Amino acid sequence: MPQRLDRLLDELEELEDAVETPEARRQVREVMRAAVHVSRQRSAFGNVVKGFGREDLAEALLGSVLFGVPMFVEGGTQEVGEYLAGHPLSFVGTLCFAVGMVIGILYVADIQDVRVSNPILGVVPRRLVGVVGVSVSVSSS
After folding, report:
1. Helix/strand/coil for 51
2. Distance in angstroms (rounded) separating the CA atoms of residues 63 and 29
3. Which residue in 10, 68, 96, 107 has a CA-CA distance of 20 to 30 Å to 139?
4. How does pLDDT run across 41-67, given as a tens digit for each residue?
5. Domain limits of the chain?
6. β partners of residue 114
């Protein structure tokens, strides 16, 4: 996709040089900006992700169960939980690390183009709350 965009922009630059009026050059520049904007709206999987829906809930639930079952079976997990319960600072650090990882995967890793829309209280992204909430619910069960 970037190669096609580069070719399109090169051709539009040639067109910009070829047109004679300032109005025509302005229109070509607007088309170039629109092409760049549209190319940024397409993600690796071809869509822009907004919000947190049923499909996202199902994916988070499945991921939590797939990762949670082996952790549940492993006996050391309870020992780690007991240690964290007795050391509040370590618990807070682990919690911050886990939420930071989720933020990194959802919004920074650029696996998909995920946009924050209609955040809770104007600040907290719904997708983040949904993914972390499902994980906490599954791990509490």
Report:
1. coil
2. 45
3. 107
4. 554 445 556 667 777 778 888 888 877
5. 2-41, 48-140
6. 49
